[in-house]
Amino acid sequence: MNPRRITVAYYTLVRKEWVRMTRIWSQTFLPSIVTTTLYYMIFGAFIGSQIAPIHGFSYIQFIVPGLVMMAVITNSYSNVVSGFFGMKFQHNLEEIMVSPTPNWVVVLGFVSGGVVRGVVVGILVLLTSLFFTHLTVYSFFVLISAAILTSILFSLAGLLNGIFAKGFDGISIVPTFVLTPLTYLGGVFYSIDRLPPIWRAISLGNPIIYMVNAFRYGFLGISDTPLVLSFGILIGLTVVLFMLCLYLFQKGIGMRN
Amino acid sequence: MNTHLALTITGLRKTYDTGTSALKGVSLSIAEGDFFALLGPNGAGKTTLISILTCLTNKTSGTVEVFGASIDTEPERAKTYIGLVPQEFNFNIFEKVIDIITTQAGYYGITRSSALQDAEPILKELGLWEKRNDKAMSLSGGMKRRLMIARALIHHPRLLILDEPTAGVDVELRRSMWEFLKKMNETGTTIILTTHYLEEAEQLCRNVAIINQGAIVVNEPTAALLHRHGDKKLEDIFLTLLQRSSTT
């Protein structure tokens, strides 16, 4: 395929995902807004007012970046895993597999769909937070690049889950038993600097810590982890997962018998 | 590389992870412009063969070339030549007819505006134009079959592969689909058809291959096959050959 045709194929994949997510907007965009609004109310306004400032910021200001990042992570992941597995389950994926669209374009198409949903929901959750607190931006570049890279990473992780999933159980196990615990323990609600040394050390093994802190740095200018290390981990994991997804597509693992 | 052949299959084998040997060294050549029937009982290996040609299933060994393009070394070029009408409905039933067609075109690098223009004559020919803005779930079984044909034709393939396209379709519609396929073939499209309706193969196809238990039992011109068996019906010849191949 020439570059023009590749662009059309890529646009088709992204458009299809956009149409799908907007058609079921009450399942794709709304839940995160409702959930984070509850977090803002309970942890921010009700309980948060009784908590001492963290690094000089009120508790709600401290948790907003983490909650936005949590929405970005879960939505990017679930968009790709459900979209891809749905196509596999209904055999719609064959429409793509019989076409000359190169594998790397298919991977990019699904990942872009995840990024679009992750970023849109992230923006909506961020706008909702303005009803509860005011926010300042310390570094646009850091917060945008952290959000986009995290979204790409978890879209790839969702694609990986979708490739290996053999049933609907397979697409719910990882989010429930891996993604949710890692996210909740990923420094969204607390600073790991306040943890006992052993728990701090254990927490540093959780990659989500680095993403949440990089994003928080973009807003507040504070981070529990070095920014360079956070972006290094983000970029490194993204490259590894992209290559892994591409390899699985080339071999047809989880797709071709 | 032979560009006069639409399809060249050499020593194709497929063994599934379960140990089932679905194809046992199939070799087959189909000339450009042919209307070719691939017949066989259920589980003979027809769908496995088609899935390998269209890159939906990995082969164990052997080579496949589509208009000279190997599915191993030039899969993208090989795929551009093929239009597939699978046995099972595999479109998204929540999408509109026109969206299913234009999305498929997009995967071939055809813009939505071009695909909309190209879709009109195809959908009209197949009697789906009035239904273009309906969701696929609202179509009847026959319409869904025709939608799959329309989708396979949107990128103007040189080789159209139909896996039991008339299964469950009423006689009238089946006849109209025959006419449509004949016209397609007359305009130069090479067609491979699998079917359990043997009169369909007899009526439409110039060449026929019978596959049983993963091996080609017979591969010759339909007329010659009928003549060699004393102008019996293809159905009788089919059953005789299957019995013979099963016992040997």
Structure description:
The complex is a heterodimer of chains A (257) and B (248). Chain A is mainly alpha-helical and 257 residues long. Chain A has one domain. Chain A is 75% helix and 0% strand. Chain A has eleven helices and no strands. Chain A has helices at residues 3-23, 25-28, 30-46, 59-89, 93-97, 103-129, 140-164, 168-184, 197-203, 207-220, 227-251. In chain A, 47% of the residues are buried. With 248 residues, chain B is α/β, with parallel strands linked by helices. Chain B has one domain (5-92, 157-247): P-loop containing nucleotide triphosphate hydrolases (Rossmann fold). In chain B, 39% of the residues lie in helices and 25% in strands. Chain B has nine helices and ten strands. Chain B has helices spanning 46-53, 75-81, 97-107, 112-125, 141-153, 171-186, 198-204, 222-228, 234-247, and strands spanning 5-15, 21-31, 35-39, 61-66, 69-70, 82-85, 159-163, 190-194, 207-212, 215-221. In chain B, the strands form two sheets. Chain B has a six-stranded mixed sheet with strand order 6-7-8-3-9-10, with helices on both faces. In chain B, strands 2-1-4-5 form a four-stranded antiparallel sheet, with helices on one face. In chain B, β7 (159-163), α6 (171-186) and β8 form a beta-alpha-beta unit. Chain B is globular, with a radius of gyration of 18 Å. The model of chain B has no long low-confidence stretch (mean pLDDT 91).
End-to-end Cα distance of chain A, whole Å, is 25 Å
Task: Count the E strands of chain A.
Answer: 0
Major sheet description of chain B: 6 strands, mixed
List the helices and strands of chain A in order.
HHHHHHHHHHH
Assigned CATH superfamily of chain B:
P-loop containing nucleotide triphosphate hydrolases
Uncertain runs of chain B = none
Q: For this entry, what is the oligomeric state of its chains?
A: heterodimer
The general outline of chain B is globular
Poorly predicted runs of chain A: none
Overall mean pLDDT of chain A: 94
Total strand segments of chain B: 10
Biggest sheet overview of chain A: none
